[in-house]
Each structure stands twice: as C-alpha cells, then as structure tokens.
Amino acid sequence: MTQGGEGPPNRLAIIGAGSSGLAALKVAVEELDGWEIVCFERSEAAVGAWGYPYKGFVSTSTKYATQFAGHRCFDAWAAPAGVEDGREFFKDDEYGRYLAGMVDEHGLRRYVEEHAFVSRMTRVSDGWALSIRGNNARVEVFDRVLICSGLAERPRTLDASVPVLDRIDEQAPVRDRTIVVIGGGESAVDIADRLAHPDLNNRVYLSLKGGIRVSPRYHPIRGVPSDFLRNRLMLSVHEDLRNAIGQKFVEARIRYQEWFERLSRSGRAPETTPRTARDRKKHWALKLTERARDDLFNVFHNKSDGFLDAVAEERIQIIGPPVGGGYRLFTDFEGDQEVALEPDHVVPMIGYASALEEVTDGAVRVSDFFLGCLHVEHEDLFLIGFARPIIGSIPPISEVQARYVIGMIAGSYERPRDIADAHAQERRRLTATYPAIDTEVVYPVEMIPYCDGLARRMGTYPSLRRLRSVRTWMRVMLTPASTLHYDDRDFDPEFIRRQPVHAPPLIIALLLLVKAFDVLFRAGLRIGRRRS
Prior knowledge:
By secondary structure, this protein is of the alpha/beta class. Helices cover 36% and strands 19% of the residues. The strands form 8 sheets. The protein has a 6-stranded mixed β-sheet with strand order 17-16-15-12-11-18. It starts with 10 loop residues before the first strand and ends with a helix.
C-alpha cells in the first residue's frame, strides 16, 4: 500500500453496485485508507436486481436475517400472535429503498460510477486492465479487483415445438393459457405461482423430477417466521445429524401441524380454507418432502410455500418429468402413468450463469475461487456475492466475505499458505456433497456455518471466550441466527441482548439433548477417519 503520499494511490475496482457490491464498497471505504476506490454499475441506480422487483414481490428471508451488520435497521420481534401480514419480510421495492438508504447514510454515492459496463478484464503486469463501456468509455488498470456482479438467472435452452416463455411481462400478462413450468427451485415455483393467479385463468402444471423441501414462511411453532426459530444452538449440530433429524421433524410438522400449533400456543389465525383444500395442501406438502430425501432434501430448500395454496386450490397441478423431447407427454408425479398435454407455453428450468468467463475469455471461473472468494492463483482478484445459500440469504454472506477479503487487502489477515491444496480438497467436498448442483458455476453454502468459518479465520467468531459474557453468549446462541453476531466493529451486544428467543423451552431442551449426542457423533467420525 502506498504510504506517506509517495507515488499514486493504490486502486481498487468493484464491479457491480448491487447488494454485494455495496456491502464491499462500504467495507472498503472504511478499511482502505488512502486507496482510490471505484464501483462500476452498468445500470442507472445502485440498488441491484432486488431494487426493482415485480409487483407483489415478498422476500423469502426476513428483514432481520437479510440486513447488513453495518447497516442495521430491523430487529427480530415478530407481529402479534395470529397476525401474518408479512411485515417481517421485504415487500415490493422495500429492499431497494433499504440499499439506497445505506448508500446515502454512509456517503457511498460518490464512489459509484453508473452506466459503466465492464466488458473485458485482462491480466497485465501491474494488475488488471478493465475495458469500460458507457458514458465514458476507456481502459483503466487497477491493483485489486472485486467482482460483485453476481449470478444471473438464465433460462435453460429448450429444443421444443411448444412456444417457450422465458420471462413474465407484467404489462402484458399471459391469460387463459395452458402452461408447463419445468423445475422445483424457488424461481420456477414463484413463476408457476404468479402464472396461476386466479385473475389470469391459466391452467398451470409444475413438472418435477423429484421432491422439494418446502419450508413454511410462518412456522406452526409460535407462528413466527421460520428464520426466527433457526438459532446457533441448532446450527452447531453436525450437518449430517441435523439433516437426518430435520427430515423426520419436517415430516412430523406437516402431519401434525395443528398439534404443533396448540402445543406451542402459536396464536396463528384459524384456517378459513375448506377442509378438502387443507387436506390437499398437507397431502402435497408431505409427498414433496418425502420424495426429497437424502441429497435432494439437503440441497433443495424452498421457502416459497405460498404456491402450495395454489396446488391445494388446483390452480397448479404437479406432474413428473417430460417423456421425450416434445414437452407434450409427461409422467404423473408418481411415475406410474403418462399425462398428455397440449400446452400453449413451456417455461424452461431456470439456471444460473456468471459473466466471468465471457469477460475474461474463459480465463476466470467461479470454481477457481477458494472459499468462494479468493482466486487460487491471482492474489489480487476476489469474488463476492456468488455464494448461493442452501439455507440463508445472499446479502449478509456477501458482507462477511467483504470483511475477509478487504481485511486481507488491508493486511489484517494472511492469505492461506496452502490455498492450492485446500482449494482442491474443497472442490472434492463440494462435488460429493452437492451432486445435483453445477459447482463449476455455483458455490453452494449453508449461510451460518459458512460465515462462521470465515469469522474464525478473522478471529471474530462469537465464542464464549471472545465475548467474555455468559449472558451475551447465551443470547447469541438462542436468538435468531444471523451475521449480526460476529464480534467485529459492527457488533452491538446490547442490541443482541434485546432480541427475543422464539424457540419454546421444550425445543431448546431437545436441542441440548441432540447437542450432547452430537459430541459423541463427531468423536465417532474422528475415530473413523483416523482408522481409514
């Protein structure tokens, strides 16, 4: 780093001013004194993809779990018992306004160059040369580059005689049509639900190869958002043990939801839908979950549970995969019979793609980054916001990545010396753990365990020894899990102590028993590894 005013300042480029880019920009401005920092944004506003969502958008994660520790605006208190009005979630353009508020409050706007598209990135002797298109086209060289442009949803190419519907036009919605939506991810389920709105009078089919783990937005235990019941005590259990128990618990929750509600005194409003529709909703929720066993259960975690209402009302019908390539013949969900359709449109499966390979002529890929953020060869190139949580939210993950990456640039943290070997080992683990995901493009993580790993590398993990307060540590363990817990410059112990514990005492007691077994489980795994 240039010091004492000698020579030009070091230069940092941040590509993308969405949530990940803004999180990185804020940390960079705070930590990199004397650096010249430029954040390039191809659009006209620094709010990212969530800034202008479709009408009626509701986030799947709560405001509390999605916010940045460095721009804390929300607590974990839920609406009154029996009220499920969505106030705990971002609606419509609320998240865009949240980001805009962060930009203004922390004076970030002067670092953002809008209408600036980085079309090419080339390795040069003293850094990276960025070709910038837009109002001021040019080529500039930077000492460090943070790529925060994120993964874009990209419909898969279909060779079908049926017309492909690859986007929904809010101004000219599709009406009175038969539509088949392929896939069970949140994007596909959301599209199916929107197309199945009663006002559109469409006949919508959702084509699935397997099951889906569908989590309720509001949990029958206590009637609060599911995010609020997920605490660090639960997430400290080994993932194999947690998933095995979780599968059984989810099935029990679906089968005995009314019993759970009475036991926990959730205060949920009584169901007003007809009994037949409620039975149909439970039937499909259980069937989808049972078919999502093993790897599928651990990978596909869908929080867009509203689509089950459309299934219960038969506005969406669930079928199996297509037979052949014509998208007119499918199996039923059980795979026992064939279903012949004459769809007007087919919606392809939604995949993810990055512009990395295109911008770098194939020289840089998502899979080249250790921990999803450090390039294994280039010490001056970083990735932020490309991790995709199996459970969790992307923005706070990006903020923790930014803390680690920019701390490394500032010299606060040392680059891993064994990064090549560690990266190779990580690639093998990802491939084995997530066989259904293309890990060349997507870096899958569980939000809290992944962020905890980065926090341990930074020395900010909220252990009892570090927090030096049993009271604060207990609140960290039992209040809703979030990235607000890390003992860094943004940590506020008084704020954490004011947050509620939503898990009932019985659930906490059960978790403590599981945790005791977890100790033996981990010891057995260690012995098994030593013997092998």
